[in-house]
Amino acid sequence: MTAKASFSLVALLVPLAISSVAGNASASTSFAVPLSSLVENASAVVVVEPIESKSQWENGSIATYTHVRIVERVAGTAPDDAWIRTAGGRVGDIGQWVEGEADLRSRSLVFLAQAGSSAKVVGRAQGQYLAVAENGKLVLRPSPDAGRLVARRGEVAKAFPLAGASLDEASRQVREVWTVRHASR
């Protein structure tokens, strides 16, 4: 084998070997948001059910507005329904996916903050827990769209601290933190 052919073979095989050893790469990495930060930055923590959604272009990107019915108020004050803005969506044949954004297509517990004429989910996907019926009760599951989460240096923030808890238990935890974080407001 000539030196040139040998070099070509190595140049072909090295990337192949590296790609077969490498693990899954996530398109998005974010810092885990502690429960205390979600609560502190929220004006309400509520359980919502989607009614309808509409997407539109805004400044060169697509935004989706989801009209939700508030089915339970866990903490704070909220109207009976709200429009929640999230990044991404589909307009005509064009779709934009924003990893790390909340996806409000099913019943969820969300940490909401007012953002102009609509609301937003605090912490994006980290501020949303899917409320799934299991064995006759609602159990919270993390949003599947959060991407990879890591703790900040020196912190032990657990990603999705309410995951696996029943809605009743999670509501109790949120109210405890709410009382401390919103006491002086």
SSE map:
Elements: H1 3-21, E1 29-31, H2 35-40, E2 44-58, E3 61-76, E4 81-87, E5 89-91, E6 94-96, E7 108-115, E8 118-121, E9 128-134, E10 137-142, E11 148-150, H3 167-181
Parallel strand pairs: 1-11
Antiparallel strand pairs: 2-3, 2-7, 3-4, 5-6, 7-8, 7-9, 9-10
Structural notes for this entry:
This protein is α+β, with helices and mostly antiparallel strands and 185 residues long. β3 (61-76) and β4 form a beta hairpin. The chain contains 3 helices and 11 strands. The model is unreliable at 5-25 (pLDDT under 50). It starts with a helix and ends with a helix.
Which stretches are low in confidence, meaning pLDDT under 50 for 5 or more residues running? 5-25
Estimate percent helicity. Answer: 10-25%
Spell out the helices and strands N to C. Answer: HEHEEEEEEEEEEH
> What is the CATH topology assignment?
OB fold (Dihydrolipoamide Acetyltransferase, E2P)
Mean pLDDT: 86
What is the CATH class name?
Mainly Beta
CATH architecture title:
Beta Barrel
> Major sheet: size, sense and barrel closure?
7 strands, antiparallel
Kindly summarize this structure in a few lines:
The chain is α+β, with helices and mostly antiparallel strands and 185 residues long.
Keywords summarizing the entry:
about 180 residues, alpha+beta, OB fold (Dihydrolipoamide Acetyltransferase, E2P), 7-stranded antiparallel beta sheet, 11 strands
